[in-house]
Write a structure and sequence with these properties.
Blueprint (H helix, E strand, L loop, with lengths): L4 E3 L2 H11 L4 E9 L7 E8 L4 E4 L8 H7 L5 E4 L3 H11 L6 E3 H7 L8 H9 L19 H12 L1 H15 L2 H11 L25 H20 L3 H4 L2 H10 L4 H5 L6 H19 L17 H20 L4 H4 L2 H8 L9 H17 L4
Parallel strand pairs: 1-4, 2-5, 5-6
Antiparallel strand pairs: 2-3, 3-4
Helix pairs in contact: 8-17, 9-11, 9-13, 14-16
Length: 370
């Protein structure tokens, strides 16, 4: 007999959620598929408290509202590992993310367990348990779900509920819980998950090989692809591959004849979307140079500020190593330059500020060096 619930009917879900009202925290994970879609397809939700575990089947239930109401309760902390993709999924369900959250991967980083450590590796490191890895590539849309698949899914929250109290106690002991809460809050910000077609060109591989008006064209084409992919719920690469986007932006065809010479454009694509592509390209080419997108310029530093960069990078690296944190995870050269120039920098917020950022800002304010 399994030690978890498998919830496939509405009364069972309603009853389960009623029993969880008033809990302080919930361990949460999801299984989803997105290989053939733009938006993730939710296939399973795993929930754990200190007393019980459940796998909730969204494909079998007419409504997830009782569970979603529970997950969006601001009085309940949601504990996740590497929370971004799960939060993205819930954002698309309700237009907001569940909050507050606690991300065990981020907590593991500041507690010296490694940068971007996987769940199984963290469980092995802290609990001495080796998790089954056979079903990491399972198609979670299949029904019925095999018992071993459900057990595998339940393990994703079974040990999450054990990691959380340990990490919570360690963070409180170090006095970092409040600082890390800023990073958790940032993970829940809607701008991280809201569709922003105008910024999609940053995700195109090798976009930095283009310059000037070519970047304006790439921005226009990448935005068009983002709109098409989201509207039809298809992967971006199914609409148009990165290589084809780059070639279009590089050559900027003016008419159908030139468009047909671009490698990687299927005939069906040209027939269906050729005019739209040419229109986007023409509009982008007409933009004035001051509107062309560019990478953020490096800050202009005074000679004294420039002299401090390496000095402070050395200090940051030493402080990070004291806590078992890889120095690159704390700050890079651009982060330090931005801090010195009075610009936005990760060193101003969250755990990085607690580790070293506030100290550096104080030194900057009084004019002292390391």
């Amino acid at each position: 007999m399994s030690d978890f619930l498998y919830i496939v009917d509405q009364p069972a879900l309603t009853d389960f959620c009623a029993r969880l009202r008033g809990v302080a925290w919930i361990a949460l994970d999801t299984e989803f598929i997105r290989e053939q879609t733009f938006y993730p397809q939710l296939c399973l939700i795993q929930i754990a408290t200190p007393d019980q575990i459940a796998c909730v089947d969204p494909l079998a239930l007419p409504s997830l509202d009782p569970l979603l109401d529970l997950l969006y309760d601001p009085a309940i902390t949601k504990v996740l590992h590497a929370a971004h993709q799960d939060l993205e999924l819930f954002f698309h369900l309700r237009g907001a993310t569940p909050a507050p959250i606690f991300d065990t991967q981020l907590a593991a980083l500041v507690l010296g367990c490694g940068s971007q450590i996987g769940y199984a590796a963290l469980v092995q490191q802290l609990l001495g348990v080796e998790l089954e890895k056979a079903h990491t590539r399972a198609d979670w849309r299949q029904r019925p779900l095999a018992t071993e698949w459900l057990s595998y899914a339940a393990d994703d929250v079974r040990y999450l509920r054990e990691l959380y109290p340990r990490q919570l106690a360690a963070l409180r002991e170090r006095g970092w819980l409040e600082a890390l809460a800023e990073d958790f809050l940032a993970l829940c910000h809607p701008d991280r998950y809201r569709l922003q077609p105008g910024d999609a060109w940053w995700r195109v591989r090798e976009h930095d090989r283009l310059g000037g008006v070519q970047r304006a064209v790439l921005r226009a084409l990448a935005a068009w692809r983002e709109e098409q992919a989201s509207r039809h719920d298809r992967p971006r690469r199914w609409i148009l591959g990165d290589a084809a986007l780059l070639e279009l932006a590089r050559r900027m065809p003016r008419d159908a004849e030139q468009l047909q010479r671009i490698r990687g454009l299927p005939a069906a694509m040209l027939q269906r979307h050729g005019e739209a592509l040419l229109a986007r390209i023409a509009t982008a080419r007409a933009e004035p140079p001051e509107q062309w997108p560019n990478r953020p310029a490096r800050p202009r530093l005074t000679p004294d500020q420039a002299a401090r960069v390496d000095e402070w990078l050395t200090l940051i690296a030493a402080r990070a190593r004291e806590h078992g944190i890889p120095p690159p995870a704390c700050a890079d050269r651009r982060d330090v330059e931005n801090l010195l120039a009075g610009m936005d920098s990760p060193l101003r917020q969250g755990w990085r500020a607690a580790l070293i950022g506030r100290e550096l800002q104080a030194r900057l304010a009084d004019g002292s060096h390391a």
